[in-house]
Amino acid sequence: MFVPEDNPSTRAGVALGRQLYYDVRMSPEGQRACASCHLQEYAFSSPAVRRGLPHINLAWSTSFLWDGRFEGTLEEAMLMEVEEFFVTDLERLRVPELERMFDAAFGTPEVTAERAAYALAQFQRTLVSDDSRFDHYLDGDDSALSESELRGMSLFYSERGECFHCHATRLLTDNRFHNIGLDAEVTGTGRGAVTGQAREDGQWKTPTLRNVALTAPYMHDGRFQTLEEVVEFYSEGVVYTDTLDTLITIGGFRLSAREQADLVAFLHSLSDETFTTDPNLSDPN
Ligand code: HEC
Ligand code: HEC
What we know:
By secondary structure, the chain is mainly alpha-helical.
């Protein structure tokens, strides 16, 4: 985890970040908070937000959003959210109870967009998910996964499924961009639209698969409602275009019905209830 020298986490800083994350005064109309679209029970995503992304282990990310159009530190990403996405009216935050929290976190009660972003970044660094049944298995508990989940895991880490190359490491993402063959026409879409490089057309950020059973709908445009549909796509729905990732088989990996069910079972074992019910991450009010 990268923590910049000028923003070490403190108890008061995390408390302020958590407050702001849940505070509707962050939006100029005073009607929505980050948590309106990033709900803890859905691993900080929302079933109602079609193109949403969850907030899971973002402390290890340096590029944000589906097409990675924002690159930088978590602090910079949060500042972008505050200034450009929410266009927060700081006057709304200049109230005694929040000024006291700014004072505790930063030494003076002054409310600035940068301070709000720094506090939000400190809170983001506490959104760590590492207590799923899959983690218990990796930590040596052989009984943590069922037979079906174990078969699904083997497929996930095999050269037939190829999943682990991109959904890599314990983060279950390589934090890079790939075209997995969803569409027949990808010109000027995805990463390519950001970089202007045609060879990156149709590439999107690899989402983490942690808590993936809770983060429907799936893909950058929310086209799939269930994990069964996603796995069926990888099995037989892959479409060829020039920028298709070389790890992906044209036409799909051709998995049997049982293999598909096993993969879906494995994906369910990545849910982390400690994370989605942790009282330290919930609405403080
Ligand atoms: C109206 C719904 C909504 C609200 C409110 C909202 N977000 Fe999001 N958030 C989204 C969507 C949709 C995406 C994905 C957008 C994309 O990639 O183009 C996203 C993506 C993100 C990401 C990138 C995650 C990643 O994996 O790259 C971060 C960080 C983020 N939001 C932070 C925040 C913060 C902080 C707030 C409050 C200041 C907030 N969001 C409020 C809908 C929302
Ligand atoms: C070449 C890299 C790569 C490989 C191999 C790969 N994925 Fe993905 N995966 C991605 C990317 C990139 C996305 C997002 C694509 C998009 O939205 O357009 C994705 C999306 C997903 C999603 C949807 C997650 C969400 O939050 O929307 C699931 C589930 C998934 N992959 C599971 C798998 C499984 C299971 C395998 C193996 C059969 C696999 N992936 C193989 C890169 C890969």
